[in-house]
Amino acid sequence: MTSRLLSTRRRRRLPAVLAEVTGETAATPTLDWHHAAVGSLHSEVRALAPIGEREFLKSAHRTIAEMVRPVYALEELQAVSTTLAKRRGSCSQRMAVLEALARAEGIPTRVRGLAIDGRFWYPRFPAMQRLVPETVLLAWPEFRADGEWLDVSALFGPIGSMSSRSGFTNTGPETLFDAIGRTAVDWDGVTCGINGQSPCDLSGQVVHDYGRFSSRDALFAAHGQSLCWTARRIANPLLTRSSAHCPTNHPPRRLLAQTSSHRQRPRRATCRPCPLRHPAHRPAAALAACSRASPAAASRCPATHRRQSRATTAAIGCAGLLALTGLTGGVRGVGIVVLRGGWGRGR
């Protein structure tokens, strides 16, 4: 079950635009290839790449795959310089880095807007399937390299020759950006044989084709991003901390702890801002004396601190849910409770 509640309403109202575009090399707010960080990366790729525009793009793809860590992120219009500074990004953000490097090299780029069925992303978010948008707007890059337009999935070879390998299923640790260098990512069904089946055929996941745009900025300006602004503001800081790998393929945490060569730092016995230890480890008289001497310090004691932390976490969680459902009045009410000291204080 997907959700239409969190989707951008603009995309459901605008008709499809299927006009052809010639592509551009100009910088945009997202593809800010004039930035020093992008220029430095471009020089590095240029020094490693063989002669030829296609070879440059292949080398750039490999460099980005090694340099930018794959994570979940929701901001489609994040500047490329910001992605490089963080050294992490979603598949869409890493493709934007590839586009920026291509434009810095003088290779025109454009994007194709594809609305992908939200159920295609279920394996990535098994516990949040009800919050996955009904459709996810994908900016699929194309490059004018060596005198012809190349789909990003055809950089490493013709789609037909790469279709003999296993396709991208979105169920393993491999990301969509990384799959480009290994197999054919076919959104049009061109890899289907006589029997009409192919492991690389993803055309059944395409709900709508919005045509081509001169840049991803133009695409998202016309049709909006997959999630509304409120949902992106709440979920993006949390998702960007998670690696973009399928949860079902992760080893258990206990196994990771056993195989790790690094010892975890022991937790502090006291709360950082509080000089008092846990009440169970202190005489009642001493705790009472500290409470009378400094009520503010007593309020920050670990027991009280945990109660307030749980209350604040619950309040923020409720505020997030209410924000996602559009109940702004409820959000203001929860915010007032948090500002007045949290729930359960002194109980």
Describe how the helices and strands are arranged.
Blueprint: H1 9-13, H2 36-48, H3 53-67, E1 69-70, H4 80-86, E2 88-89, H5 91-104, E3 109-117, E4 135-145, E5 148-151, H6 159-162, H7 176-179, E6 206-213, H8 216-223, H9 229-239, H10 253-259, H11 284-293, H12 295-299, H13 302-324, H14 328-339
Parallel strand pairs: 1-2
Antiparallel strand pairs: 3-4, 3-6, 4-5
Question: Number of helical segments?
Answer: 14
| Rg value | 25 Å
Would you count the extended β strands for me?
Answer: 6
Quick one: biggest sheet?
Answer: 4 strands, antiparallel
Show unreliable segments. Answer: 10-14, 248-316, 322-347
Taking strands numbered 1, 2, ... along the chain, how are they ordered across the largest sheet? 5-4-3-6
Average pLDDT reading: 74
H/E element sequence: HHHEHEHEEEHHEHHHHHHH
Q: What's the structural domain tally?
A: 2
Class from secondary-structure proportions? alpha+beta
Amino-to-carboxy terminus distance: 40 Å
Tell me the helix content: 25-40%
Q: Can you tell me the overall shape?
A: globular
Residue fraction in strands: 5-15%
Transmembrane segments: 314-339
Domain Transglutaminase-like: 78-152
Protein name: Transglutaminase domain-containing protein
Keywords: Membrane, Transmembrane, Transmembrane helix
